[in-house]
Amino acid sequence: MSVRVMVVDDHPMWREGVARDLTEAGHVVVATSGEGRQAVRVAAAVRPDVVVLDLQLPDISGVEVIHGLRAALPDVRVLMLSASGEQQSVLDAVKAGATGYLVKSAAPAEFLDAVRRAAAGEPVFTPGLAGLVLGEYRRLAAGGPNGDAAARDGTAPRLTDRETEVLRLVAKGMSYKQIAQRLGLSHRTVQNHVQNTLGKLHLHNRVELTRYAIEQGLDE
């Protein structure tokens, strides 16, 4: 699957190297940028599927860039690629709307797989960080609903048994591939179930869906 990608990083050699790896893997690099504000403006014009974004930029923070990108392009996937694996940095990025978070020590094959999965809407994290994010969701869920429309007013549409089954595995942090293997379904079928569930619950991405599922106790 060819993905339209924008690379945002203030180090020219790193930025060019990432762009080259993406191009050689068959993806389309629609733009690169070394500054946050410029990145938001350019992204609105070129409309990438995935933005690969560094956390530290010279003008504004990566978190501010995420907010700008999501305001301009609500469906864009943001994959953080940062030297920092600190807990607060990860949580701030995910809460702002990042689809995934990799540290720059990730192997090229891991990075390219993360881009593909992020484009499909899957949360992707450096090993060890997924548990951190799920733990934070559980902590927040313990304090009550997060304000999502379906959870807030108690009128969440009825899900099919299969959708509920898939949602339960999403809440456990499993990837589409793992869910497909567990349930004996195709990868595409799992994606369709997730997209149908997102539509029914008026949620925007799998990060929000995971949070919702944990609030409903489906991760137990």
UniProtKB/TrEMBL annotation:
PROSITE patterns according to UniProt: HTH_LUXR_1, HTH_LUXR_2, RESPONSE_REGULATORY
Name used for this protein in its record: Two-component system response regulator
Protein keywords: DNA-binding, Phosphoprotein
High-level lineage: Bacteria, Bacillati, Actinomycetota, Actinomycetes, Micromonosporales
Response regulatory domain: residues covered: 4-119
Domain named HTH luxR-type: residues: 152-217
Keyword Repressor: no
Species of the source: Micromonospora rosaria
GO molecular function: DNA binding
4-aspartylphosphate PTM sites in chain numbering: D54
